[in-house]
Design goal:
- This protein is an all-alpha fold and 109 residues long.
- The protein has 2 domains: 42 residues, no CATH class; 66 residues, no CATH class.
- The protein contains 4 helices and no strands.
- The chain is extended and about 40 Å long.
- The two termini are 17 Å apart.
Length: 109
């Protein structure tokens, strides 16, 4: 990351304070005590998103990451969630992560 860009994160209070502190500002209606990730008893050190253009490559990559973490240790899987591209584009507002342009979505990592 470019140092100037990294500095922006240090100045962004929502990023520095974390999601639980920012939840009211973000109009989160769910009680953060029950969050699957980021609640008071399950704070992750990082979030890993693995994406691929093909299901087979994705399965292989995820398996490889899990096996490597067992051998090298130090990682604990808190939560795993599988997503897919939404194919029914006829519904208004039907998108992942707020991206409607088709450009910003993940491609093979």
């Amino acid at each position: 990351m470019i140092p100037e860009e990294a500095e922006k994160f240090n100045k962004d209070s929502a990023f520095v304070n974390g999601m639980t502190a920012s939840s009211k500002m973000l109009d989160e209606r769910l009680d953060y005590q029950n969050w699957v990730i980021g609640g008071p008893t399950n704070l992750p050190d990082f979030l890993l998103i693995v994406a691929s253009d093909t299901e087979d490559f994705l399965i292989q990559r995820i398996y490889s990451i899990k096996e490597s973490s067992k051998v090298n240790g130090g990682l604990e899987l808190i939560h795993e969630e599988n997503g897919r591209t939404l194919m029914d584009t006829n519904k208004p507002g039907h998108e992942h992560f707020g991206y409607k342009d088709g450009i910003s979505r993940d491609t093979r990592a």
